[in-house]
Amino acid sequence: MGWKMSFITCEKCGKKLIERKPNGLWVFKFGARGNSQPIVEMEIHGSIKMKCLKKSCRHENILTFFPNQ
Predict the structure, then answer these.
(1) What is the 3-state secondary structure (H, E, C) of 18-69?
(2) How far apart are CA 51 and CA 62, in angstroms?
(3) In 3D, which of 17, 47, 46, 48 has the Cα closest to residue 30?
(4) Cα dist from 15 to 1, 3, 28, 31, 53, whole Å
(5) pLDDT tens digits, 8-65
(6) Is the pLDDT of residue 3 over 90?
(7) Which of 27, 39, 44, 67 has the fewest CB atoms within 10 Å around its CB?
């Protein structure tokens, strides 16, 4: 059975921010339009603090590496 990545959304406005793999790695992709490759593509190991990408929101989200914290 395959694994499924899940999207994490802004806790204030609900915009999709980042994907999370089942092993805890964060996957951030930015700048893609249609079928083109993203300009930025990162895998992050650990907790992160990330501002919402929506210009009218900019809420600061704290995303912990370890679940349920």
Answers:
(1) EEECCCCCEEEEECCCCCCCCCEEEEECCCEEEECCCCCCCCEEEECCCCCC
(2) 9
(3) 17
(4) 29, 23, 14, 15, 8
(5) 999 999 999 999 998 889 999 888 777 888 888 899 999 999 999 999 999 999 999 8
(6) no
(7) 67
